[in-house]
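pinging the channel bc i need a second pair of eyes. not urgent but kinda urgent?? the chain im working w is below, pasted from the shared doc
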Amino acid sequence: MYKGKGLWLCIVAMLMLTTVGIAQDKDRNPDEKQLNRDRMQRAIRDRMDDFVNRLTDPLVQRVSRSLIQRYNLDQTAISELRQSIQESAEALLKQPDGLFALATAARKGNYTEMLETLLSHSNCKTAFAKYLNEEQLQEYMDYTLAREQRDRQVVARHLIAWLDQQLSLTVNQREKIEQRLIANAGKGKSISAANMLWNQLRPVDVVRQRFDAPLDDVLSQTQSVIWEELITPLRFTKEWHAEAEEDDERKERFVNAQNEIIEAHRTGKIPREEVGPRLEALKIELWGEDEAAEFEEKMKRFVEAKLAAHTEQLGPLDESAAQRLVLVTKGVVEEYLEAHDEELKAKYEEADIVHHPLYQQTIEDVLSDEAFAQYKALQAERQAFRQQALRDVLVASMDTELLLSDGQRKHFETTAEEVLALPVPDEVSAPVYMTYQLFQRIDHERLSPQQREKFERIYREIKPEVKLGFRN
């Protein structure tokens, strides 16, 4: 989606260049000058039309679908409202402040703010007033705002559940970081629950967008080490192109591996967001001796800190127990890095070392029965929190896709409680398996024909992956 300020500056620059071009027409004959002016003005109009369409199209699509479902408006009414939105956006092109507000809201995915900006224009407000009275319009704005707030809350909760896996957070830490995630929701590009559900963005990338400073006032010293490793990705820093590489053997290895990675993405074996990190890790392995050594050290620091942070939650330990955990941790780290070397190169932040059997068995051995029961209860609460975060993302995504009414959303929420979020069958992602289960459990009679058709289309798309997972 366009970025507001950058687009506005582009438009201003285009108008200035056009003005200069027209001013330089002094020596041309009048007919040629007029043709040139007409040509430039048409080009400006075309660019403006394209800008308006790109800016308003997501809003138009969403408003059209929701108004049809919520107020049973016919296509004639929808066409008129669509036209009023586009005309109002075009009028805002002449008002820098209004256009900047509209483009900024669009960049953040804040459709309520976009609609409020457009309704400040008389043409748009008159068109809406023709089909919705003042009370209905306010109710619709409240309904749209509530959905966006739920979506932001759900995304933040999902990110917290992911961070909890990395940092072993306390309940108090979760609450504090979640508040900051919501406050920083406007940083970077818009992130929706659907982006999270279908793994279109890695949680680590979203966290990096929303935080540009450490959380030392919230995290322990050990957790801060993990945080630092999370938000500072390692990059291959050399100026390098495969075509110019003189080492034919390494170049061939890179090209072959690159083709395998791209093919794996094309066939759905790895998501798009893993392609870049895998290629980056491959370049480091083949040509970046210094970076490779640094990357190995980074992975080691990361997994060591994850175990240390997890150990901290056990509370005070006697010297013998503490020493035993130190020795076991060292061996577990070495074994884990050796066993998971390739996958960690692509996504080291997903390292799941705290569930290593030897580490878990050692925790049970060094704790008293009462302390171990408390530890298990804490892990169960953490798992339940993650399960609920996944269910919330699922329902919010379906709400966006199907534009559910309040009653329908509550039915989805209740039904989602029956959905098994974790664990999932091999080769099937958690979101896909959850959506598959939800489709089978939901009362489809509660949905409109359009909603049923859309949900069935989603189900048809994911069903082959689930069936393949069960066969494997």
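so Residues 1-9, 11-20 have pLDDT under 50 and may be disordered. and The chain has 21 helices and no strands. — does that match what u expected or am i reading it wrong
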